[in-house]
C-alpha cells in the first residue's frame, strides 16, 4: 500500500478493504470502518488501571485491526497484549500502540473519503 511520505497515511484502500468492498459493498464497509473508528476512539486510553484490562483491549484490537488491513496497529496491539500479559512496564509499547491507533484513525478518515462517504460515524 502506498503511503504519504510525510504523514504515513495510506493513499489507497488496502487489499483487505478491497476484498470487503467486493463482498459487502462500499456502504457496509464504511459502516464497519465507522464502528471500528468508534472502538479506536475509546480504546487504549490512559485510564486503564490494570494489565488485565490493557491485555483484553489489545487482544480485541489485534483481530479487528488485522481484519480491516491495519497491520501496523494489529502488530502494535499484539506487542502491547504480550507485555500486559507478562505484567511488564507498558509505557513504550503503549505509546507505540497509541501512535498506531492515531494513524489508523487518520487512515479511516481517508478511506471514508476515498469511498465517497460523507456519512458521520455516530453510534
Overall spatial form: elongated
* Low confidence ranges: 1-10
Order of helices and strands: HHHHH
Structural class: mainly alpha
Largest sheet: none
Count of individual beta strands: 0
Q: How large is the radius of gyration?
A: 15 Å
Count of spatially separate domains: 1
Q: Count the DSSP helices.
A: 5
**Helix percentage:** 55-70%
Report the sheet-strand fraction.
Answer: under 5%
* Averaged pLDDT: 81
Q: How far from one another are the termini?
A: 30 Å
List the SSEs and their pairings.
Layout: H1 15-24, H2 26-41, H3 51-67, H4 71-85, H5 91-114
Helix pairs in contact: 1-2, 2-5, 3-4, 4-5
Would you give an account of this structure?
The protein has one domain (15-114). It is elongated and about 40 Å long. Helix 1 (15-24) packs across helix 2, helix 3 (51-67) packs antiparallel against helix 4 and helix 4 packs antiparallel against helix 5 (91-114). It is mostly helical. The chain has helices at residues 15-24, 26-41, 51-67, 71-85, 91-114.
Amino acid at each position: 500500500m502506498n503511503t504519504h511520505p510525510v504523514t504515513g497515511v495510506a493513499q489507497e484502500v488496502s487489499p483487505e478493504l478491497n476484498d470487503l468492498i467486493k463482498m459487502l459493498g462500499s456502504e457496509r464497509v464504511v459502516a464497519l470502518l465507522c464502528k471500528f473508528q468508534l472502538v479506536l476512539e475509546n480504546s487504549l486510553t490512559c485510564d486503564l488501571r490494570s494489565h488485565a484490562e490493557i491485555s483484553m483491549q489489545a487482544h480485541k484490537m489485534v483481530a479487528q485491526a488485522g481484519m480491516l488491513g491495519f497491520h501496523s496497529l494489529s502488530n502494535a496491539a499484539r506487542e502491547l497484549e504480550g507485555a500486559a500479559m507478562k505484567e511488564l512496564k507498558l509505557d513504550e509499547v503503549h505509546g507505540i500502540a497509541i501512535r498506531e491507533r492515531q494513524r489508523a484513525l487518520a487512515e479511516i478518515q481517508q478511506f471514508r473519503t476515498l469511498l465517497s462517504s460523507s456519512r458521520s460515524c455516530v453510534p
